[in-house]
């Protein structure tokens, strides 16, 4: 110990705040000094110290290099009591820029202590180094150490609150971007649980549910993770304990947030009253900043729910319009089954889902493709409205001229849909449907019409529709024939693989049939 160290802790009463009744997370303070006695005395006089209900915990380093390693491994250190003279006369001073620049740690408060102020003049050190206080050991009594520590911890608290607030807002912006790109309720709900957990830096352990009235049995889980994984679609009471179910329903009924000691339940308000509740198992109470961040994100999520509802309503309106348009084509074929286009759309979508699991098609069959083919496939035969009734209603085989008129429906339907699609920017179900309308009568071997396209030159959507259309047509009655038995229709599809149909699409089709119990 140097001569100056004799004055480090002069006898002076220290009025430390009383220790909290419950043990709270301590403030971490790093003592960096090459004299073990300094470490011991600091711990002794500060053992009852607390700030904002939190005690202090001391870490020790006996050289600058050791201190640097501790700081690398524990970025939560709030304050450093740093000696100047250790392994070299300026080891402490040289450590300061390494903390600030090399580690990028601007939050930790650094109090420089020296027993030899002449070696490091206060004015030069304060202006030349990014430290927060400078104390000669001759003046640093126990009382002044307590005062300096309170000031440093208060400053650290404010800085970290600002940093957390900034990081939280950045996370909210990122979460909003992620959430607002989703267009299905289930994926949106999954994202809500995930992004709330990320913003609050909590384990992904929670659920989101919507009310079906106020009875417990009517509350339904939209998404769950952690202990609630796999609970989507189930009643709330089926997967949660009664206390949690009651708490969630209370939030939905009273339309307010509920912050508990080990979980938080957030009320997600929507404009038309279709409220939801998100529960996260935090394992601890949220602090004030975390609550504010949660409520900011909840407001964003609520807007997302409203947008999702509007998007869903718009999709339903589009689907109704498509069905009406498709009905015009079915009007030309009164015994085509009535709901032919709906059956076709379902089968086409199922085949596309199976193809999505094929590595050769996974990149092509994305979410947008699935949305577009579901709608666009219903318009594949819209060009039939321009085919004369004498052709569509004919009971026997078509002659050459009649066949030519029939084949015009592909280009005519594509022209109708392309004209309409130009009113909408980008890819849409009308332009997608136009490609299907033009090419659904092409054949894998190139012998189809109108262009004689072959193989993968035929759009994938049209290749899928070709298989689904033939199967549905065969298995439903027409005015000139009875419905073909399913087994016979399946044999026709199988025999057409590689000639009329894409073999990969046929394989996916048979997997769908197997799932429906049509194939063993």
UniProtKB/TrEMBL annotation:
The modification 4-aspartylphosphate is found at residue 83. InterPro entries: CheY-like_superfamily (IPR011006), Cyclic_di-GMP/3'3'-cGAMP_PDE (IPR052020), DUF3369 (IPR021800), HD/PDEase_dom (IPR003607), HD_GYP_dom (IPR037522), Sig_transdc_resp-reg_receiver (IPR001789). Residues 28-152 form the Response regulatory domain. GO terms for biological process: phosphorelay signal transduction system. Keywords: Phosphoprotein. It holds the Pfam family HD_5. Signal peptide: none annotated. Residues 314-520 form the HD-GYP domain. GO terms for molecular function: phosphoric diester hydrolase activity. It comes from the Bacteria. PANTHER family: 3'3'-CGAMP-SPECIFIC PHOSPHODIESTERASE 2, CYCLIC DI-GMP PHOSPHODIESTERASE TM_0186-RELATED. This is DUF3369 domain-containing protein. It comes from Aerophototrophica crusticola.
């Amino acid at each position: 110990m140097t001569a100056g160290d004799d004055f480090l802790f002069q006898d002076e009463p220290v009025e430390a705040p009383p220790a909290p009744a419950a043990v709270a997370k301590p403030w971490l303070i790093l003592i960096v000094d090459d004299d073990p006695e300094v470490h011991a005395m600091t711990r002794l006089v500060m053992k009852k110290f607390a700030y904002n209900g939190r005690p202090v915990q001391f870490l020790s380093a006996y050289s600058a290099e050791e201190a640097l390693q501790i700081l690398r491994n524990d970025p939560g250190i709030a304050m450093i009591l740093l000696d100047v003279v250790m392994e070299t006369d300026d080891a402490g001073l040289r450590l300061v820029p390494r903390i600030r620049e090399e580690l990028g740690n601007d939050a930790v408060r650094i109090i420089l202590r020296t027993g030899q102020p002449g070696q490091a003049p206060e004015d030069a050190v304060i202006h030349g180094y990014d430290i927060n206080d400078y104390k000669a050991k001759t003046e640093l009594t126990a009382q002044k150490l307590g005062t300096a520590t309170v000031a440093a911890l208060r400053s650290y608290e404010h800085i970290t609150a600002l940093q957390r607030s900034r990081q939280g807002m950045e996370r909210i912006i990122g979460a909003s971007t992620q959430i607002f790109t989703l267009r299905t309720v289930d994926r949106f709900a999954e994202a809500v649980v995930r992004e709330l957990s990320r913003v609050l830096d909590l384990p992904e352990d929670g659920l989101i549910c919507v009310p079906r009235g106020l009875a417990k049995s009517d509350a339904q889980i939209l998404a769950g993770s952690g202990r609630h994984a796999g609970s989507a679609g189930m009643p709330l009471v089926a997967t949660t304990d009664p206390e949690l179910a009651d708490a969630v329903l209370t939030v939905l009924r009273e339309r307010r947030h509920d912050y508990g000691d080990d979980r938080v339940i957030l009320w997600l308000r929507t404009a038309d009253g279709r409220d939801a509740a998100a529960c996260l198992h935090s394992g601890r109470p949220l602090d004030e900043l975390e609550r504010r961040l949660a409520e900011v994100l909840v407001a964003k999520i609520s807007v997302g729910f409203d947008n999702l509802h509007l998007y869903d309503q718009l999709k339903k309106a589009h689907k109704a319009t498509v069905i009406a348009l498709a009905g015009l084509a079915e009007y030309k074929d009164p015994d085509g089954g009535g709901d032919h286009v709906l059956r076709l759309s379902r089968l086409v979508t199922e085949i596309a889902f199976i193809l999505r699991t094929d590595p050769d098609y996974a990149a092509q069959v994305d979410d947008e493709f699935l949305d577009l083919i579901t709608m666009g496939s219903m318009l594949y035969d819209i060009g039939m409205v321009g085919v004369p009734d004498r052709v569509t209603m004919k009971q026997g085989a078509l002659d050459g001229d009649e066949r030519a008129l029939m084949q015009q429906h592909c280009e005519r339907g594509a022209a109708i849909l392309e004209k309409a699609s130009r009113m909408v920017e980008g890819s849409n179900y009308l332009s997608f449907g136009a490609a299907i309308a033009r090419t659904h009568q092409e054949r894998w071997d190139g012998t189809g019409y109108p262009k004689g396209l072959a193989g993968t030159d035929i759009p994938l959507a049209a290749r899928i529709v070709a298989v689904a259309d033939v199967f549905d047509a065969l298995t439903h009655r027409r005015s000139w024939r009875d419905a073909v038995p399913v087994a016979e229709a399946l044999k026709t599809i199988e025999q057409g693989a590689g000639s009329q149909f894409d073999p990969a699409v046929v394989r996916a089709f048979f997997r769908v049939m197997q799932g429906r119990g049509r194939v063993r």
